[in-house]
Amino acid sequence: MSLLRELYQEVILDHNKNPRNFRIMEDATKHVEGYNPLCGDHYTIYVKMEGDVISDVSFQGAGCAISKSSASVMTSLLKGKSRKEAEQMFNDFHNLVKGELNAEENLETLGKLAAFAGVSEFPARVKCASLAWHTLHAALHDDAQRVTTE
Predict the structure, then answer these.
(1) How far does the chain reach from its first CA to its final CA, in angstroms?
(2) Residue 105 in 3-state DSSP?
(3) Second label for 12, Cα 20 to 30 Å away, from 21, 76, 82, 125?
(4) In this predicted model, what pLDDT tens digit does every residue of 4-26 receive, in sequence order?
(5) In sequence order, what are the residues at sequence separation of 6 or more whose Cβ sits closer than 8 angstroms to the Cβ of residue 114?
(6) What is the pLDDT of residue 10?
(7) Which parts of the chain sit beneath pLDDT 70?
(8) Across the chain, how many H-helices and E-strands are there?
(9) Alpha-carbon distance 111 to 78, whole Å?
(10) Residue 41 confidence (pLDDT)
(11) 38 Cβ neighbours under 8 A, 6+ residues apart
């Protein structure tokens, strides 16, 4: 079994079964709804900022295994990151699921995000994987209260 396949099994299946930071955050400084009308994924991302640092991030909602595990991994990786670091992770993840970033060559930088490399082979799943990330991006930039993948 390849390293990326093992990572997929370990990370995506685990985060789908046991999502981290799956809760409403009452004291969030920003929350944005994300919706994927193609498959019905619907999440709200909650962010608590302290200056330029993400002190807490959580999500609540429902969707497929890819979208839920993506949101869970995202929230577990972004706590304590600056807005700039979060933006870099957003760009890396977006390039990864679109097949524009080689996971094996960037395994050290990507860490658990590399598990989503296989998503690029299924274009319909790219929107599932990136929904939480686009929603967080909107929250960090004070954009809309609601984003869709369409």
Answers:
(1) 35
(2) coil
(3) 82
(4) 778 888 899 999 999 999 999 99
(5) 4, 7, 96, 103, 104, 106, 107
(6) 87
(7) 1, 143
(8) 6, 4
(9) 13
(10) 96
(11) 124, 127, 149, 150
